[in-house]
Specification:
8-stranded mixed barrel; binds ligand C2E; about 20% strand; binds magnesium ion; GGDEF-domain containing protein; single chain
Length: about 300
C-alpha cells in the first residue's frame, strides 16, 4: 500500500535535492575556497567536564538556512549531499569554517585551550585521501594545533572502515571520537582494532530519566544505567574520556555522573549556537555553577 506520507516524503526529498544542488553545485568554486556560504552555517554546542563543570570544547554542527523552509538540521540533508556527490566539498568547507572560528575563540578562565569536534560522514571516510587532504588543509595557518581538533565518526562508519584512514587521521595528530556509541552494529573485537580518544554515548541511553521525549531508540530506564556504566568503565580502562550526549536535565546529568561518565553535552548546558554567540557563551560558562545540579 502506498501511504500518502511516503509520497510526501519522496516529494520533499526531491524538492530538497533540487534546492541543495542549486545551493551547492552552483557554488563549487566558492565551496572550495570560500569561508562563507550563502545558505549554510556552522553552529557550536559546548561540552563540559562533569567533575569540574568546566567547558572543554565545542562540537561543530552544520545548519542549512533554507530560503523558504527555515533552518534545516543535517540529518535531513547530509544523506542528500552524499547522494549527489557534494559531501566532499561541503565537508572540506565545514572543516575550514570551523577551524577559522575555533582559532578565534577566547581562552576560558580555566586557561586550557578549547577542543573543536567535527563530524565526518561515512562517505567522507570512504573517500579517505580526499578527507586527509581536507583535514591537512584546514590545519594550515595559525590558531588551531592538530591536537585541538577531533574528528567524530559514528560507530557504524568506523566498523565499516578499514583502519588505514583512521590511522592516517591519527598520524596528523588529530584526535578521534566514536559518535553515537551503543546504537551501531559493530562488535567489540572490531572496535579493538582501532585506537580512539573519546567515546560519545548516544542520547538514547541518557534520555530515559527526567521525563524527556523524542528518543529515537527508547531504552528501558532500569536497563539504561547498567548499560552506561560498562561504557564509562571501558573509557576509564582505555584511559580516554566519555561524553554523555543529549543531557537535558539535572536528573540525567546525575545519572551519567553516577555511572562514571566524564563529560556531558546537551540542552542542560546549551543548545548549539551560531559562531558569533560563542564568545558570550564561553563567558557565561566561566561564571556558571560548576555542578549543573548534579547530585554528588
Ligand atoms: P551528532 O553528531 O550525534 O550530534 C548531536 C545531535 O544531537 C545534534 O543534532 C544536536 O543538535 C543534538 N542535540 C544536542 N543536545 C541535545 C539534547 O539535549 N537533546 C536533543 N534531543 N538533541 C540534542 P543535529 O545538529 O541535528 O545533528 C544531527 C547529526 O547530523 C549529528 O549527530 C551528526 O551525525 C550529523 N552532522 C551534524 N553536523 C555535521 C557535519 O558538519 N558533517 C557531517 N558529516 N555530519 C554532521
Ligand atoms: Mg557528533
Ligand atoms: Mg552523537
Ligand atoms: Mg547522531
Amino acid at each position: 500500500k502506498f501511504e500518502p506520507s511516503m509520497q510526501d516524503r519522496a516529494r520533499l526529498r526531491l524538492a530538497l535535492e533540487t534546492d541543495l544542488r542549486a545551493a551547492l553545485a552552483l557554488q563549487q568554486v566558492k565551496l572550495r575556497e570560500a569561508l562563507t556560504l550563502d545558505q549554510f552555517a556552522v553552529h557550536y554546542q559546548p561540552i563540559v567536564d562533569l567533575a569540574t563543570g568546566q567547558l572543554t570544547g565545542f562540537e561543530a554542527l552544520l545548519r542549512w538556512q533554507h530560503p523558504t523552509r527555515g533552518t534545516l538540521n543535517p540529518d535531513g540533508f547530509i544523506p542528500l549531499a552524499e547522494s549527489i556527490g557534494l559531501i566532499g566539498a561541503l565537508g572540506s568547507w565545514i572543516l575550514r569554517r570551523a577551524r577559522h572560528d575555533a582559532a578565534r575563540w577566547p581562552l576560558p578562565a580555566h586557561g586550557t585551550p578549547l577542543q573543536l569536534s567535527v563530524n565526518v560522514s561515512p562517505l567522507q571516510l570512504r573517500e579517505g585521501p580526499a578527507l586527509i587532504a581536507g583535514i591537512t588543509e584546514a590545519l594550515q595557518g595559525a590558531g588551531l594545533p592538530a591536537q585541538r581538533l577531533e574528528i567524530e565518526i559514528t560507530e557504524n562508519a568506523m566498523a565499516e572502515q578499514g583502519a588505514s584512514v583512521l590511522a592516517d587521521i591519527h598520524r596528523l595528530g588529530v584526535r578521534l571520537a566514536i559518535d553515537d556509541f551503543g546504537t551501531g552494529y559493530s562488535s567489540l573485537s572490531r572496535l579493538a582494532q582501532f585506537s580512539f580518544d573519546r567515546i560519545k554515548i548516544d542520547r538514547s541511553f541518557v534520555q530515559v530519566v527526567g521525563g524527556t521525549a523524542g528518543s529515537a531508540r527508547p531504552v528501558a530506564p532500569s536497563n539504561a544505567a547498567w548499560m552506561i556504566r560498562p561504557i564509562a568503565a571501558l573509557g576509564t580502562g582505555l584511559g580516554i574520556s566519555t561524553v554523555a550526549e543529549g543531557v537535558e536535565t539535572a536528573a540525567q546529568a546525575s545519572l551519567v555522573w553516577e555511572a562514571g561518565v566524564t563529560e556531558m553535552q546537551g540542552y542542560l548546558v546549551s543548545t548549539p549556537v551560531p559562531a558569533d554567540a560563542v564568545p558570550a557563551l564561553i563567558a557565561r560558562l566561566d561564571q556558571a555553577s560548576p555542578y549543573w545540579g548534579v547530585r554528588r
